[in-house]
From TrEMBL:
Record's protein name: Queuine tRNA-ribosyltransferase accessory subunit 2
Residues that, per the record, bind Zn(2+): C318, C320, C323, H349
Species assigned in the record: Glomus cerebriforme
Cofactor entry: Zn(2+)
Any Gene Ontology biological process: tRNA modification
Keyword Transcription: no
Binding note for cofactor: Binds 1 zinc ion per subunit.
First-listed, main subcellular location of the protein, grouped into a coarse class: cytoplasm
Length: 397
């Protein structure tokens, strides 16, 4: 198995098009064009979707799985299953990225030490050491895993605590890299301290990592401020390796993140919106003559009684299964009837739409129209929404 990342195009500022190539064997290659997203999973499933539903969404090639969802029993029973995590979770055709913590619900934990990270599970707090994590990775055999990281969940940590977090994370990264066989992404820490963010980035970049993970979950600012904070890390990374960022889920987050050279995002935001009964209708391909004096909506709320008799699809022109076969009125009815099919249809549409948004971004970078389209996007949807979306962290129990 081999993994490589190639930059296909770099243009203004930090904007870039790339391709992550995973060669699994002679018969199976996975190509992931970037910017792109990894499908968020909870307990190894994309929420609301069966593997068949997921396969019907054509642009999803990669999923993100977290140990946090399996570790309530140690060792996890799934480690007894032969064939690795791809086979166990029905993800054989996908690139599987593994991390310890759930990027969508980073709850604060009692404490981490030099030896272990504490995580909450449905059966209480569990401790993960760097060695036990590597042991599980060798059994699960994901395509990539993020190194164990001492992520700070306090809002106002001391400088001493931040430095300790950087030191521990680097130590655990070295341990992960000493285990050959599975590609490792180095996790960048440093919380809100610029000097420590730079130190973490520079030190991680010196190591033989396959890529980098940045965390925007705890930076409680506007999208633009959070991206600027991440920029202090991004500026010190080599351009030749992919960068994955958590906590950036809104279209504004993605546009600004892509502008600064982030290649991979997750889809936790689309789960959050699905759970709230919303369907995505935002677009990067906006007509120039669209009335920007009236702020456009990015989503529609299917709980709204106005949709009771609306026989249009969720989004006119959308080619997803839900829009091709069902109406807003039907999904509104399903929500009111508390039928799980409502969120199945919403999730199918939202993921389809989200992945197509990334496709549109890639096309616009290729055609040198990205910044022009991004400017029009902010004009039409307004920047105040970015103030509202302070944090993409979701609580997903
Ligand atoms: Zn649709």
């Amino acid at each position: 198995m081999s993994l490589s990342f190639n930059l296909l195009k770099t243009s203004e500022k930090s904007l870039r098009l790339g391709r992550l190539t995973l060669i699994k064997n002679q018969e199976q290659n996975i190509l992931l064009d970037t910017p792109n997203c990894l499908a968020y999973t909870s307990r190894g499933c994309v929420p609301h979707l069966t593997p068949d539903n997921l396969q019907a969404i054509p642009l999803i090639d990669a999923v993100s799985v977290t140990l946090e969802h399996f570790i309530d029993i140690q060792p996890p029973p799934s480690t007894q299953f032969p064939g690795g995590i791809h086979k166990f979770l029905n993800f054989e055709g996908y690139l599987v990225f593994f991390d310890v913590r759930d990027s969508g619900k980073l709850k604060s934990v009692s404490y981490n030490t030099d030896k272990y990270v504490s995580i909450y599970t449905c059966h209480g707090v569990r401790q993960i050491t760097s060695d036990s994590y590597i042991k599980y990775m060798n059994i699960y055999k994901p395509d990539i895993f993020a190194s164990l990281a001492d992520k700070i969940t306090d809002e106002t940590p001391s400088l001493k605590r931040i430095k300790k977090s950087v030191d521990r994370t680097l130590k655990w990264l070295d341990n992960a890299l000493s285990n050959e066989g599975i590609q490792v992404f180095g996790v960048l820490t440093g919380h809100n301290n610029q000097e420590e963010r730079i130190r973490s980035a520079q030190e991680t970049a010196k190591r033989n990592v396959a890529g980098f993970v940045l965390n925007g979950n705890f930076l409680e600012n506007t999208s633009r401020e959070r991206i600027n904070m991440l920029k202090s890390s991004l500026d010190h990374l080599p351009s030749t390796k992919p960068r994955l960022a958590y906590g950036l889920g809104t279209p504004e987050d993605i546009i600004l993140g892509v502008s600064e050279g982030i290649d991979l995002f997750d889809t936790a935001y689309s789960v959050k919106m699905t759970d709230a009964g919303h369907a995505f209708i935002f677009s990067l391909d906006l007509k120039n003559d669209l009335d920007s004096s009236k702020q456009q909506q990015q989503t529609i709320n299917l709980w709204d009684t106005n949709f009771r008799n609306d026989v249009q699809p969720l989004l006119i022109g959308c080619q997803c299964y839900s829009c091709q076969n069902h109406t807003r009125a039907y999904i509104h009815h399903l929500l009111n009837a508390h039928e799980m099919l409502a969120t199945v249809l919403l999730m199918s549409h939202n993921l389809y739409h989200y992945t197509n948004f990334f496709k549109t971004i890639r096309e616009s970078i290729n055609q040198n129209t990205f910044f022009q389209k991004a400017e029009q996007f902010f004009k039409v949807y307004g920047e105040q929404k970015m103030e509202e979306t302070k944090n993409s962290t979701i609580i997903y129990n």
